[in-house]
């Protein structure tokens, strides 16, 4: 380990211990005394939120949120109202709102990079944690803090480097995050007997460290599996999206960097019931630290019915292109879609467990494509699907939501800029999703959320219960 790296790591640990901003201790950037850090603002908000929750529970603790049917129990708990998630709420018709703000509102209100248009992931994380739109200065300082915390231990680098290239990138990603648990401040503090009212503090520090290190982990996996294994240093004065782009080898393309900022923002959070969010929350409820909790969430994200779907959509689209041609007319595309359905297969990228309209995340990516790559033939094919598939699925009659979701578009954009390795796409999703699930995990510990333990029944028991009732 280099002397500089040793200084950085020890300074970060010392800074966290004494509750000061790590970048100040390291000397990378002296934070303005006029600007409150994210941690300082979070600490201010906790008592107010605790009182709000206490008062609300006292008044409405016995109120009914909804009923649970047998179909819900057998249908993956779909539609059951039973989770608290502060960062976002998903409306079936309107789509996602981050702390009450739609994606277009976030694009308009959240700070962007100098010369850029898309919101910075740092600004969204600030919004998710505090419910407030940060200033440009606050976002800049958060960028500097994440850059200062970004180094990963040499033993974690060695673990990644020893992985065979044939090991799926998501498996490597989860493995590395699990290994980083060695650095957990929450685990150490819990072992030493920290009071539960202070759980939020090391949880916040772990979350900040983990988010900061994810680009280095993701970049190392990408370079090892698909390139020469050589990884550039991050720029200490640049933002999160730029540095991830640089580690992947695409930072010279300003449009790709803007795409990364948009991608990381819109994939970050989708309320608490999806697999990666719920899993992170569930594992965290056992007081597993943020590293173990996120690793569990990443394993859920790697499933083909969740985050892995973005690569499956692109593969299906490319297969269609190879069979009917990239410039196929609309009738030919329609016939191909019908052939897929009649063959007992689904059209990937269309439909959603909750949404009943076109996913606003899809629309944000479509608008990006219309601006930056309007004449790309593959985007043209995706546009035909956008116009054709909903009508076919409606006529087919076996889907409640025929509209495209976020996975139907992301792969096409990444392909256009040269990031063509489809197995890697879910890693990018994982980097983004960490912003949402870890912001909530900080609030889980601040609000003293308990161990999650819903009740279950066997089929035989349900038959006895409902048979007697009948």
TrEMBL record:
Cited CDD domains: ScCit1-2_like
Top-rank taxon: Eukaryota
Location of the active site: 306, 352, 407
Biological processes per GO annotation: carbohydrate metabolic process; citrate metabolic process; tricarboxylic acid cycle
UniProt entry tagged with the keyword Transferase: yes
GO cellular component, one term: mitochondrial matrix
GO molecular function: acyltransferase activity, acyl groups converted into alkyl on transfer
Keywords in alphabetical order: Transferase
Entry similarity comment: Belongs to the citrate synthase family.
PANTHER family named among the record's database cross-references: CITRATE SYNTHASE (PTHR11739), CITRATE SYNTHASE, MITOCHONDRIAL (PTHR11739:SF8)
Identification of the protein by name: Citrate synthase
Species whose genome carries this gene: Umbelopsis ramanniana AG
């Amino acid at each position: 380990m280099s002397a500089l790296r040793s200084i950085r790591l020890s300074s970060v640990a010392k800074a966290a211990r004494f509750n000061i901003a790590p970048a100040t201790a390291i000397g990378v950037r002296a934070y303005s005394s006029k600007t409150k850090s994210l941690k300082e603002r979070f600490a201010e908000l906790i008592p107010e939120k605790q009182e709000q929750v206490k008062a609300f529970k006292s008044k409405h603790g016995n109120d009914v949120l909804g009923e649970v049917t047998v179909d819900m129990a057998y249908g993956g708990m779909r539609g059951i109202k039973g989770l608290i998630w502060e960062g976002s709420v998903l409306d079936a018709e309107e789509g996602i709102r981050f702390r009450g703000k739609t994606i277009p509102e976030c694009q308009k209100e959240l700070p962007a990079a100098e010369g850029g248009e898309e919101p910075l992931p740092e600004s969204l994380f600030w919004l998710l944690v505090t419910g407030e739109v940060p200033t440009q200065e606050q976002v800049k300082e958060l960028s500097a803090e994440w850059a200062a915390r970004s180094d990963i231990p040499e033993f974690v680098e060695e673990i990644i480097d020893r992985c065979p290239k044939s090991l799926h990138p998501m498996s490597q990603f989860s493995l590395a995050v699990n290994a980083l648990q060695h650095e957990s401040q929450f685990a150490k503090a819990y072992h030493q007997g920290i009071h539960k009212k202070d759980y939020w503090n090391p949880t916040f520090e772990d979350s900040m460290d983990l988010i900061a290190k994810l680009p280095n982990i993701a970049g190392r996996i990408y370079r090892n599996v698909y390139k020469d294994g050589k990884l550039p240093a991050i720029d200490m004065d640049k933002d999160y999206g730029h540095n991830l782009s640089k580690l992947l080898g695409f930072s010279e393309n300003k449009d790709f960097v803007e795409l990364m900022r948009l991608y990381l923002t819109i994939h970050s959070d989708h309320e608490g019931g999806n697999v990666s969010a719920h899993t992170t929350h569930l594992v965290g409820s056992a007081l597993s630290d943020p590293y173990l909790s996120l690793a569990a969430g990443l394993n859920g994200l790697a499933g083909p019915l969740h985050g892995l779907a973005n690569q499956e959509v692109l593969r299906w689209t490319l297969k269609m292109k190879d069979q009917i041609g990239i410039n196929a007319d609309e009738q030919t595309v329609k016939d191909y879609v019908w052939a897929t359905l009649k063959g007992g297969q689904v059209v990937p990228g269309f439909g959603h467990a909750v949404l009943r309209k076109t996913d606003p995340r899809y629309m944000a990516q479509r608008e990006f494509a219309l601006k930056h790559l309007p004449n790309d033939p593959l985007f043209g094919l995706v546009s035909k699907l956008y116009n054709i598939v909903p009508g076919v699925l409606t006529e087919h009659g076996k889907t409640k939501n025929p509209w495209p979701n976020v996975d139907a578009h992301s792969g096409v954009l990444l392909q256009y800029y040269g990031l063509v390795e489809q197995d890697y796409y879910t890693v990018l999703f994982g980097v983004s999703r960490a912003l949402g699930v870890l912001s909530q995990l900080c609030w889980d510990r601040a609000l003293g959320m308990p161990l999650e333990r819903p009740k279950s029944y066997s089929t035989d028991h349900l038959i006895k219960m409902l048979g007697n009732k009948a």
